[in-house]
Amino acid sequence: MRPDYKNWVPKGMLYGFGGGAIAAAVLMAVFAVALPAGALKTALMGIAGAAAAVLLVAAVWLLHLHNAFSYEGKRKLSKTIVEGVAAYVTIPEGGRCLDVGCGSGALTIACARRSPGAAVLGVDRWGKEYASYSRGLCERNARAEGVSNVAFRQGDALRLDFPDESFDAVVSNYVYHNIAGADKQGCLRETLRVLKKGGVFALHDIMTPARYGDMQAFVEELKAAGYEKVELIDTADGMFLEKKEALWLDLAGSALLTGIK
């Protein structure tokens, strides 16, 4: 039995954009043959041609994303990032770790494997946006990896159903930027709320100013609140991705917020 961590760019999305490009191209050809010469024909062919071009470019870009993040491909970017984030987390013997937005369970399992004497919990809403992800999938992946110190449950990153200071470590990977309209720094505060004093955190996301605001100011805010150590690390400048790759994959601004409470 092999784990199946899926791909955040599903094949259905690739087929949708690729099929749309083909359909638009076919429609353009139909207009070329069926309509008499004139302004209407020119306009309709132009619209169909532009749609075909846009959809084709999107399909090619998504294919590159899919291949880069695939656990089966050469780049294995998802595996690199997950293991890189997990490396920043030390969980004490008998301690507890929370993975917010666990998806297919990859980061949860990676943290559990590194700390076999700890208990690691993954939570996710498993919404329709990523229908192939589920609690059952996470549990199957844990069994496939031979990792037993994990558990999974449904949860909301905006309102974590845990008391303050419940966990010795908290982690998250590429989650909050997907939550439309949410205050991203507020999401981080909610995650850090459940972290014990002295606990460690590693939160990775696309932390651009447009999404997150001034993250350097946020770092200083945490330090002023008494956090022992806070570091904002650019992961799109050779750490997890090269600059050119980050730009091509639309992941420029990826950063890891890590430290000790």
Question: Could you list some keywords that capture this structure?
Answer:
Rossmann fold; 261 residues; alpha/beta; 2 domains; 7-stranded mixed sheet
Average the pLDDT over all residues and give the rounded result.
Answer: 94
Unreliable runs: none
How far from one another are the termini?
39 Å
The neighbouring-strand order within the major sheet is 3-2-1-4-5-7-6
Rounded to an integer in angstroms, the radius of gyration calculated over CA atoms is: 22 Å
CATH topology tier name of the largest domain: Rossmann fold
Tally of individual domains: 2
User: How many β-strand stretches?
Assistant: 7
The CATH class label of the largest domain is Alpha Beta
Looking at CATH, the homologous superfamily of the largest domain is: Vaccinia Virus protein VP39
Number of helices: 9
Secondary-structure element string: HHHEHEHEEHEHHEHE
Which range best describes the helical content: under 10%, 10-25%, 25-40%, 40-55%, 55-70% or over 70%? 40-55%
Question: What is the CATH architecture assignment of the largest domain?
Answer: 3-Layer(aba) Sandwich
What general outline do the C-alpha atoms trace? Answer: elongated
- Biggest sheet: strands, sense, closure? 7 strands, mixed
Please explain how this structure is put together.
The protein is α/β, with parallel strands linked by helices and 261 residues long. The chain folds into two domains: 59 residues; 184 residues, Vaccinia Virus protein VP39 (Rossmann fold, 3-Layer(aba) Sandwich). 44% of the residues lie in helices and 18% in strands. The chain has nine helices and seven strands. A seven-stranded mixed sheet has the order 3-2-1-4-5-7-6, with helices on both faces. Strand 1, helix 4 and strand 2 form a beta-alpha-beta unit. Helix 1 packs antiparallel against helix 2 and helix 3 crosses helix 4. The longest helix has 31 residues. The radius of gyration is 22 Å and the shape is elongated. The model has no long low-confidence stretch (mean pLDDT 94).
